[in-house]
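Anyone up for a design puzzle?
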């Protein structure tokens, strides 16, 4: 599935500037509506190292009310967590009625990182597919809206981003030997991702694969997916944007290139498990 995606898709700066204000305004209104309707929302982000998960989460959360969501950057299970069923620590983080829970990596680590690094026996990560399906079904049956993203970039693009980070003394520490090892095993990881999609795709927890080469295209697709899912759940009419669907902004490619040089390098600071912390005090307490 991933090898059939068009990773060259992009959105011009001009088009993004037209779309962004309308998308952020709609997202804020829908967050308020989901709070009033007491709909719990789970949004999780998975993807390649350096695909831009952290920056995408920052973009998604910047226009919404920080009191209405919690952000969970997921690390490896701690010692006391390993003494309990493996999904226990995620049950503690499910959102309250009307609240959003946003996960920077998630319970899919059991069938991705833990599988690829041989941290658990094969029998355990294979059983985890069923555990995940049951977990998400239980959440959905209780009324939770589940939105799952996977940010996809090519092996060549990942290498370019790693090299860009490594050349800057301020960001070089984000690229670790482990990140390069994952890069060299790109094809093996691809198999694990594909199997995870196949085994956990469902009507109550569908995957949205985001072509993440161009960050503006990435951000707009993420916004549009959240908005569409919330509109459907709330029964709101779909808001058709005047320039929706416009891409390939060749008219201002030169302007885009200048913007690339001006914008900070944080879009790729994903390699070393860089974590963004929510503006909410509660988020800091819950992130452990």
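Challenge accepted. My sequence:
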């Amino acid at each position: 599935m991933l090898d059939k995606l068009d990773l060259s898709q992009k959105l011009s700066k001009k088009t993004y500037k037209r779309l962004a204000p309308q998308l952020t305004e709609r997202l804020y209104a829908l967050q308020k509506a989901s709070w009033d309707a007491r709909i719990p929302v789970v949004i999780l982000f998975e993807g390649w190292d350096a695909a831009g998960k952290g920056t995408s989460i920052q973009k998604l959360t910047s226009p919404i009310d920080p009191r209405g969501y919690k952000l969970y950057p997921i690390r490896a299970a701690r010692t006391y967590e390993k003494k309990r069923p493996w999904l226990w620590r995620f049950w503690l983080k499910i959102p309250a009625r009307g609240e959003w829970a946003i996960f920077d990596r998630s319970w899919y680590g059991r069938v991705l990182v833990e599988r690829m690094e041989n941290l658990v026996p094969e029998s355990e990560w294979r059983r985890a597919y069923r555990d995940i399906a049951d977990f998400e079904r239980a959440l959905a049956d209780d009324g939770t809206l589940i939105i799952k993203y996977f940010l996809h970039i090519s092996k060549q693009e990942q290498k370019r981003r790693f090299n860009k980070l490594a050349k800057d003394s301020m960001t070089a520490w984000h690229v670790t030997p482990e990140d390069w090892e994952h890069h060299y095993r790109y094809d093996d990881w691809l198999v694990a991702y594909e199997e995870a999609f196949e085994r956990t795709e469902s009507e109550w927890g569908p995957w949205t694969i985001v072509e993440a080469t161009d960050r503006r295209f990435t951000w707009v697709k993420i916004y549009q997916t959240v908005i569409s899912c919330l509109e459907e759940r709330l029964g709101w009419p779909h808001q058709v944007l005047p320039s929706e669907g416009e891409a390939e902004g060749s008219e201002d490619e030169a302007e885009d290139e200048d913007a690339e040089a001006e914008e900070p390098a944080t879009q790729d600071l994903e390699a070393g498990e860089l974590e963004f912390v929510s503006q909410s005090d509660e988020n800091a307490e819950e992130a452990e």
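A detail worth pointing out: The two ends are 35 Å apart (CA to CA).
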